[in-house]
Amino acid sequence: MKNTKKKILALLAVLVVALGLVFAVTKMMDKPEVQKGAKDITVVIIDKSKDSEKELLNKKYDTDAEFLGQLLDEHNDEVKMVATDGGYGRFIDSIMGIENVSGATSGSYWMIYRLVDGNYVATDFGIDEQPIANGETYGLFFESLSW
C-alpha cells in the first residue's frame, strides 16, 4: 500500500513538472517578435468608466521603443502614467490623472488593447512585455466593473 502511494505521488509530481514545462514553452513561443528601429505608433487613451466614452488622447508617435511601456515612458510628460512594479511587471495605477479604484461593489482598471482589423483586441501582455510594431495602434482604456 505504501509503495503504491509513493508511486502515485511520484507520478503526480512528474506530471506537474511536465505540465509546467509545457506551459512555459508555450508562453515563450506565443510572444510576438520585437521590431527594432524607427516606427510610427498610435496611442489612444479612452475613459470608458462612465455612461459615455471620453477620448483623452489619440496621437501618433515616432519612436525607437520596442515595447509599449518604453513608449509611454518616453512621452510620460503627456501621458502622465504612474505605474507600480509588481511580480508580473508594472501595473498601471493611473494615466492622465485617472486612477484605478477597487472596492467591495465596484472596481476600475486600465486595460491594454491593440487595434486588429478595425477592432480593439485585449493584449496578452503587460505594458513592459507588449511589443510594438510600425503602423500599429494601441489603446489604453479605463474601464469599470459593477456587481
Pick out its properties.
27% helix; alpha+beta; 9 strands; 147 residues; Ferric Hydroxamate Uptake Protein, Chain A, domain 1; 41% strand; 2 domains
Structure, explained:
The protein is α+β, with helices and mostly antiparallel strands. The chain has two domains: 1-30; 39-146, Ferric Hydroxamate Uptake Protein, Chain A, domain 1. The protein has helices at residues 2-30, 68-74, 76-79; strands at 39-47, 54-63, 82-86, 89-95, 98-99, 101-102, 106-116, 119-122, 137-146. The strands form two sheets. Strands 1, 2, 6, 7, 8 and 9 form a six-stranded mixed beta sheet that branches. A three-stranded antiparallel beta sheet has the order 3-4-5, with no helix packed on it. A hairpin with a 6-residue loop joins strand 1 (39-47) and strand 2 (54-63). The chain is elongated and about 65 Å long. It starts with a helix and ends with a strand. The model has no long low-confidence stretch (mean pLDDT 86).
How large is the radius of gyration? 20 Å
Fraction of residues in H or I helices: 25-40%
What would you say the CATH architecture of the largest domain is? Beta Complex
* Number of β-strand runs: 9
Proportion of residues in extended strands: 35-45%
* Shape category: elongated
Main beta sheet strand tally, sense and closure: 6 strands, mixed
N- and C-termini, Cα separation: 50 Å
Number of helices: 3
| Series of H and E elements | HEEHHEEEEEEE
In the CATH scheme, the class of the largest domain would be Mainly Beta
Q: Which fold name fills CATH's third level, the topology of the largest domain?
A: Ferric Hydroxamate Uptake Protein, Chain A, domain 1
The number of domains: 2
Average pLDDT rating: 86
| Global structural class | alpha+beta
Runs in which pLDDT lies below 50 for 5 or more consecutive residues are: none
